[in-house]
Amino acid sequence: MVSLRKLSVSLVMLALGVTVLIPFIWMISSSFKIQADLFKYPIHWIPQNPILSNYEEVWGGKYKFALFYWNSAKITFFTVVGSIITSSLAGFAFAKLNFKGRDFIFLMYLATMIIPAQVLLVPRFILFDRVGLVNTHWAVILPGIFTVFGTFLMRQFFSTIPSELLEAAKVDGAGFFRIYWQICLPLTKPAIVTLLILTFTWHWNEYENPLIFLRSSELFTLPIGLSSFVDEYGANYSLIMAASVSALLPLIIVVAIFQRFFVEGIASSGLKG
């Protein structure tokens, strides 16, 4: 009976997985087809005459796709590195340092998660405009470096580290930063990878902030560039599919590399259902 139930659940999950993958398979297949073969029925999931000209047009044509790619990579890199540094430091402080009002400050910090991000766009734009950050990549990078969720995630993971380990390090003469850097941080690899994947995915696909704060086309990120690409090549779905596959590839690579640590990090930080 138990085996039958497991088999049924596995079949249902398999069917759901295939359903989710079908659009991506069609997108990849279409990127290697000419426009005339795109909507033929029945669908040829494996292109009969695969071509690479769509990718050549996307990357080597008049469209500045490579520049948008580079802008997204630069913004995402600095945001991911910055968020890991600030979140791990703040998470360590809230989890392992005893100071007055620690729990209240952390609660108030968490409470800011209920504030919609759109509410802060106008005051943030005014602030960045006055300090000269509008139409620069820093206007997109700086807000992403400080993340409440990242601090919460790291704090949950640091809380699982035995306090006796830290006390032993103090006895040996280690300071707080040395304890953080040499003892605690190496033990939080799953949490760091989890934060890396979530932050990378979010900011690689971010559309709203670049749309508001970036004005020059030379500064556009990939989501903004893809939107412009669709406007310019609206009828050429083969080129759009090739551009979309190119944009999706870094996400697939990052998740594939760090998937094991990601699952472990979610489980260990108390975020699983």
Automatic annotation (TrEMBL):
Gene3D superfamilies: MetI-like. This is Carbohydrate ABC transporter permease. It is found in: Cell membrane. Belongs to the binding-protein-dependent transport system permease family. The keyword Ubl conjugation does not apply. Keywords: Cell membrane, Membrane, Transmembrane, Transmembrane helix, Transport. The keyword Transcription does not apply. InterPro entries: MetI-like (IPR000515), MetI-like_sf (IPR035906). The chain crosses the membrane at residues 7-28, 75-94, 106-126, 138-158, 179-204, 237-258. Residues 69-258 form the ABC transmembrane type-1 domain. It comes from Paenibacillus alba.
